[in-house]
TrEMBL record:
Any matching Pfam family: Abhydrolase_1
Species in which this protein is naturally found: Cyclobacterium lianum
Domain AB hydrolase-1: 21-252
Domain of life where this protein originates: Bacteria
Full protein name: Pimeloyl-ACP methyl ester carboxylesterase
Length: 267
């Protein structure tokens, strides 16, 4: 499996599809494979690059704290290794803050970006959520921690939908059987990066086209955070999914996959 040296760590990645490169950056706690339901569609149009962020999956999990800038440099190293001079970027949640830093620190590498449930800075609520995430990770079984994450990211609509809820129950079972679970040290490092990300004053310097997306009912990173990012980036478009949570991209899977593919094809 492909692992490279980037920014002082071993970084794992996978590639799917052919065409112009699309780097996919996942959120806190999750490896790159969680993009699966999107990559199945996008790989028909793009060379999709799925990276395991530092602290999770098959990449190194050094002691933290990490920073969003540091993790952006990890991704820049991956693009350089692959000989990619410019890529489209999609980042979800923590992945969106890494993408922001990639555009700020390495603008020459970024053609366009899709920022999903992003934030430019944390308020007290967000910091407490990330701190609480670390605390309960240390105390709960993996399947119990999975329930907490689901309560953060899914809207009531998903819990009320029989098929979605069945899938959530299966994910809880799978968490208990995961042969490579994220260690506490990796989650803590990632959470520090999330809490201390503060680039609101720098977003005006991003000149690339940006699609900013979020969920109206997101309890994890609320709608105001998404709108603040979109307002700060000059060449951005905003789409909010009604009655949807942090996981709006799964709750509106077909529309989201098609919308993003079309936007990326034009940008």
């Amino acid at each position: 499996m492909p692992t490279i040296q980037s920014n002082g760590i071993n970084l794992y990645y996978e590639e799917r599809g052919e065409g112009e490169p699309l780097l996919l950056i996942m959120g806190i706690t999750a490896p790159g494979s969680v993009w699966e339901k999107h990559v199945d569609y996008w790989q028909k149009s793009f060379r999709c690059i799925l990276v395991d962020n530092r602290g999770v999956g098959s990449s190194d999990k050094p002691p933290g704290p990490y920073s969003s800038a540091q993790m952006a440099d990890d991704c820049a190293g991956l693009l350089h290794h692959l000989g990619i001079n410019k890529a489209r970027i999609a980042g979800v949640s923590m992945g969106s803050i890494i993408a922001q830093q990639l555009a700020i620190r390495h603008p020459e590498l970024v053609r366009s970006m899709v920022l999903m449930c992003p934030w430019a800075r944390c308020d007290n609520t967000a910091r407490d959520i990330f701190t609480h995430m670390i605390d309960i990770k240390a105390r709960l079984k993996p399947e119990e921690f999975a329930v907490y994450i689901q309560l953060l990211i899914f809207s009531k609509t998903s819990f009320d939908d029989p098929d979605m809820y069945h899938s959530m129950l299966e994910d809880r079972k799978n968490a208990a059987l995961d042969p490579n679970p994220q260690p506490l040290i990796g989650l803590a490092g990632q959470a520090e990066a999330c809490m201390h990300h503060d680039v609101l004053d720098l977003l005006s310097g991003i000149q690339q086209p940006v699609l900013v997306t979020g969920g109206e009912k997101d309890a994890f990173t609320p709608e105001w955070m998404t709108r603040e990012v979109a307002s700060a980036i000059p060449n951005s478009q905003l789409h909010i999914y009604p009655n949807s949570g942090h996981a709006f991209h799964w709750e509106n899977l077909d529309d989201f996959n098609h919308r993003v593919r079309q936007w990326l094809a034009e940008n």
